[in-house]
């Protein structure tokens, strides 16, 4: 999605004349939901000023050079945001009950009893099917990912962590470094697993990632071996990109799945 510009005006307006019904309203709800823990040390989130069927107005932010201090603060803040929780895995942001999107691709946010079942059926398999239908992924590769989805759905990777309040599309382009620290934009917010946000940052890179991860792991109390699960949490972004961006993402998707199939 679009990054927030640094031009010196009061707000930034994002528009899309053919936006699906509820597209910007869902984004606004996600931003407001993620912003709630800010007063308790959560990650900073861009402020929503106005929203309509074809636009969303956001506070304009001034970009600046990333620093390790800002990365560490973001790691600690993400842990607080995630810890604010969600009603269930797959639950949408508070105030929104309609459709969901990641970027401009549709996805569902249906509350589910376990993380693995939600992740397999609502985050990985739908995009694998789209990639297969579009010829971006072959049948053999799809079977490899499906085997991992079977394990996910069976609960093989579930842990005792409750549903986290996650950004859901946390690649580096949705982290804007400002003079006052990092600010999150453009979420696909829902109840999920905190490692999913870290996995997307790791997949596409982020300034100060190592310091961010260390600060997060300490603040969130992650168990030893959490890094081994990062490729599992990258299946969703890899599948979405295989669906929308083409076959170049098929091999990394299958490679990530092979570690768990």
End-to-end Cα distance: 32 Å
The gross shape turns out to be: globular
Main CATH class:
Alpha Beta
CATH topology: Aminoglycoside 3'-phosphotransferase, Chain: A, domain 2
How many strand elements?
A: 10
Q: Bin the helical content.
A: 40-55%
Keywords: Kinase, Transferase
GO molecular function: kinase activity
Organism: Terrabacter tumescens
Family: Belongs to the fructosamine kinase family.
Per-chain topology:
Elements: E1 11-15, H1 23-35, E2 44-45, E3 48-52, E4 55-59, H2 68-83, E5 100-102, E6 105-107, H3 115-133, H4 139-153, E7 164-166, E8 175-178, E9 181-184, E10 190-192, H5 194-204, H6 209-220, H7 230-233, H8 235-245, H9 250-258
Parallel strand pairs: 2-9
Antiparallel strand pairs: 1-4, 3-4, 5-6, 7-10, 8-9
Summary tags:
261 residues; alpha+beta; three-stranded antiparallel beta sheet; globular
Characterize the structure shown.
It is a single chain. The protein is an alpha+beta fold. It has one domain: Alpha-Beta Complex (Aminoglycoside 3'-phosphotransferase, Chain: A, domain 2), CATH 3.90.1200.10. It contains 9 helices and 10 strands. The chain has helices at residues 23-35, 68-83, 115-133, 139-153, 194-204, 209-220, 230-233, 235-245, 250-258, and strands spanning 11-15, 44-45, 48-52, 55-59, 100-102, 105-107, 164-166, 175-178, 181-184, 190-192. The chain has a 3-stranded antiparallel sheet with strand order 1-4-3, with helices on one face. A hairpin with a 2-residue loop joins strand 5 and strand 6. Helix 2 runs parallel beside helix 6 (209-220), helix 3 runs parallel beside helix 8 (235-245) and helix 4 crosses helix 9 (250-258). The longest helix is centred in the middle third of the chain and has 19 residues, at 115-133. The two termini are 32 Å apart. The relative contact order is 0.18. The model is unreliable at 1-8 (pLDDT under 50). Keywords: Kinase, Transferase. InterPro entries: Fructo-/Ketosamine-3-kinase, Kinase-like_dom_sf. This is Fructosamine kinase.
């Amino acid at each position: 999605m679009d990054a927030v510009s640094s031009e010196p005006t009061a707000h930034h307006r994002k528009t899309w004349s053919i936006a699906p019904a509820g597209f910007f309203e869902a984004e606004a709800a996600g931003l407001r939901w993620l912003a709630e823990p800010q007063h308790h040390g959560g990650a900073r989130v861009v402020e929503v000023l106005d929203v309509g069927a074809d636009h969303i107005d956001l506070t304009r932010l001034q970009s600046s050079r990333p620093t390790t201090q800002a990365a560490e603060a973001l790691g600690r803040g993400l842990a607080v945001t995630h810890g604010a929780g969600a009603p269930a895995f797959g639950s949408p942001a508070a105030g929104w009950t309609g459709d969901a999107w990641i970027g401009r691709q549709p996805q569902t946010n249906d509350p589910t009893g376990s993380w693995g079942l939600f992740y397999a059926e609502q985050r990985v398999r739908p995009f694998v099917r789209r990639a297969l239908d579009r010829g971006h992924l072959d049948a053999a590769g799809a079977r490899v990912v499906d085997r991992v989805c079977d394990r996910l759905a069976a609960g093989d990777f579930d842990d005792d962590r409750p549903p986290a309040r996650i950004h859901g599309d946390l690649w580096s382009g949705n982290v804007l470094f400002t003079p006052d620290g990092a600010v999150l934009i453009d979420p696909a917010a829902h109840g999920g697993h905190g490692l999913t946000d870290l996995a997307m940052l790791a997949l596409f890179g982020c300034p100060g990632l190592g310091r961010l991860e260390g600060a997060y792991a300490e603040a969130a109390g992650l168990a030893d071996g959490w890094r081994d699960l990062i490729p599992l949490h990258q299946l969703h972004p890899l599948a979405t990109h295989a669906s929308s961006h083409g076959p170049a993402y098929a091999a990394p998707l299958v490679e990530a799945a092979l570690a768990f199939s």
